[in-house]
Design goal:
Layout lengths: L1 E6 H7 L2 E6 L4 H10 L4 E5 L2 H8 L5 E7 L2 E2 L9 H5 L7 E5 L3 H7 L3 E7 L4 H11 L3 E6 L9 H14 L5 H10 L19 H7 L7 E7 L5 E7 L1
Parallel strand pairs: 1-8, 2-7, 2-8, 3-6, 4-6
Antiparallel strand pairs: 3-10, 4-5, 9-10
Helix pairs in contact: 1-5, 6-7
Length: 232
């Protein structure tokens, strides 16, 4: 199994084989919490105007997403697992638009298998990839706003890679994940950001292996991406 780590939208475009698009803070943590809250469908789009148009087709739908970390005007929720955790999404179609994560999915055109990745379902992702046993695995760390390297995404990529190779120190990873609080996760503890990036988001996004399911991406006829929840 050949495992490579890429970054940003350019990395998503280069990725091949089994591709995992990683966005820990916060897109693909949010997606897991949305399914756990009862969402029946999840559709990823690249632009806000596409989300508004798509919403017209679904009577029971919610718009989730951000630009510059803040909730998009006219959306129901920001890109916050804290908001999702407090919401009953039973039977809802979630239409999700973010700067990094969802755009990574849209740009991963060479993937044979396309998955989302985050700490909260990392073990399930590893189990699924082992079961599929692909020749090539591409782990794409989407980074901060898809432009700057993000420690949490690269750390998640290394965690998945090491687990696939049956190596690595889980305690060391746990310490590094905890240490994100003073690094890339420090923005969640800035009082100026509390309305759209509360401290609870940090803790919800770093609960390693909380969920035992993968989110597999499938291309839709309308050009968007559906995520399918599969228990592993």
């Amino acid at each position: 199994m050949n495992i490579e780590i890429f970054e940003f939208i350019e990395g998503a475009q280069k990725a091949k084989g089994a591709v995992v698009i990683i966005d820990v803070f916060r897109a693909f943590s949010v997606a897991c919490y949305a399914f756990d809250a009862g969402a029946s469908q999840y559709i990823a789009v690249g632009e806000a105007n596409e989300a508004f148009e798509l919403q017209k087709k679904y009577s029971k739908s919610v718009l989730v997403g951000e630009r510059d970390e803040k909730k998009i005007v006219g959306f129901d929720f920001g890109n916050s697992p804290t908001e999702i955790l407090k919401t009953d999404l039973n039977g809802c179609t979630v239409i999700h638009c973010t700067t990094a994560g969802t755009n990574g999915l849209v740009n991963a055109g060479n993937a044979d298998i396309l998955l989302t990745g985050s700490f909260v379902n990392a073990a399930a992702v590893v189990r699924y990839i082992r079961f599929m046993n692909p020749e090539n695995v591409s782990l794409v760390a989407m980074g901060y706003r898809a432009k700057l390297s993000a420690d949490e995404d690269l750390l998640c990529a290394r965690l998945i890679s090491d687990r696939l190779n049956s190596k690595g120190n889980e305690n060391e990873f746990a310490n590094q994940i905890s240490g994100l609080r003073k690094g890339s996760g420090s923005r969640f503890f800035n009082p100026e950001n509390i309305e759209f990036s509360p401290p609870t988001d940090f803790f919800l996004c770093t609960m390693v292996d909380r969920f035992d399911f993968i989110l597999k991406a499938e291309h839709r006829l309308d050009g968007h991406i559906s995520l399918i929840k599969t228990e592993i």
